[in-house]
Design goal:
The structure is a homodimer.
Chain A: H1 4-18, E1 23-26, H2 28-34, H3 39-49, E2 56-61, E3 67-72, H4 75-89, H5 95-107, H6 113-123, H7 135-150
Antiparallel strand pairs in A: 1-3, 2-3
Helix pairs in contact in A: 1-3, 2-3, 4-7, 5-6
The structure holds a DNA duplex.
DNA sequence: AAGTAGAAGGTCAGGAAAGGTCAATAAATG
DNA sequence: CATTTATTGACCTTTCCTGACCTTCTACTT
């Protein structure tokens, strides 16, 4: 584990643990400076190590005063939210199964009633019937996205 | 958020909150003086941060005794906000305008941070790029749908 | 009333300051 | 030796900042 990418990874995870906000902000070029490497190396580390699957979310902004923001997802809830849900959702998600899922999420108090109504209003697709190739596949993808968002530690 | 534009934005929002009239009046060159920048920088900030989507209106007058006037638009609590929003959204809704709208809804405390993140995660379309014919049109339709849902009394 | 000088604010193009992408190469691994 | 993983550098996009030049308004002069 002595290579550059691994060291940058460790470094980021260490300061990420020390913070209480659930996220850190930094500048790509600055970090590259610390490790004396090209800036794009940072992207490599972020792309390979700080993925959603591993429990992280990365946001950024370009231009003057730009930044990178690495958000940690709640590992505690990840069991409930992500692993279980992902398996449950699979590649496709029918309207009925969506409703079942939402009910369960509300019962377990992982989402509020309002949030549930919101999600259903979008994913039930009344407003959009006929727009998509395969609505069930889309619904599954969106639902995973939603769960990932809801497990952000900074919300 | 250390860059100039962000600082000017904060400054303006702060004095805008402290006033009771709902608007502020100031001179472009004077403000530019406060931040030691060129006057056109002020226009940049106004154009990018104080848009209608975000709930602001900017009026101005040239010539001797000219001024800038920034008006904060409140969304009436009476559910008329839906109409306002519908008009604002129109037939198409770009990502940038969506973000502006969401910021406003959060500011007005009509949606929570979580709800905002949720909506953005779906409508920003990262997960679905290439799926749709016209994503801006879709985004507008979905957003209207969402607002309708959120204005339900029983949630 | 007409003209004009000065005092605002407006526009736009260009450059600088971030971060992003991709393909070529090098290193490690099996 | 083959394949995956890491590293680099050239080039791109987005966001910000500045300065030159333009338009509008007021006030004053004639």
């Amino acid at each position: 584990m002595g290579n550059l990418a691994d060291r940058i990874e460790e470094y980021l995870k260490r300061i990420l643990e020390q913070t209480s906000e659930g996220y850190i902000m930094l500048q790509r070029s600055e970090l590259a400076g610390v490790f004396s490497c090209v800036p794009s190396q940072i992207n490599y580390v972020l792309d390979t190590r700080f993925t959603v699957e591993r429990g992280y979310l990365v946001e950024s902004r370009r231009g003057g005063g730009g930044y990178l923001r690495i958000v940690r997802l709640e590992l505690g809830l990840e069991g409930q939210y992500q692993q279980v849900m992902r398996q449950l959702i699979g590649e496709q998600l029918s309207r009925d199964r969506l409703n079942g899922l939402m009910e369960r999420l509300v019962n377990e108090e992982l989402v509020t009633l309002r949030e549930a109504a919101l999600i259903k209003s979008i994913l039930s697709g009344d407003a959009l019937s006929g727009e998509f190739r395969d609505w069930d596949v889309l619904r599954a993808r969106l639902m995973k996205n939603i769960l990932t968002t809801l497990s952000r530690e900074d919300l």
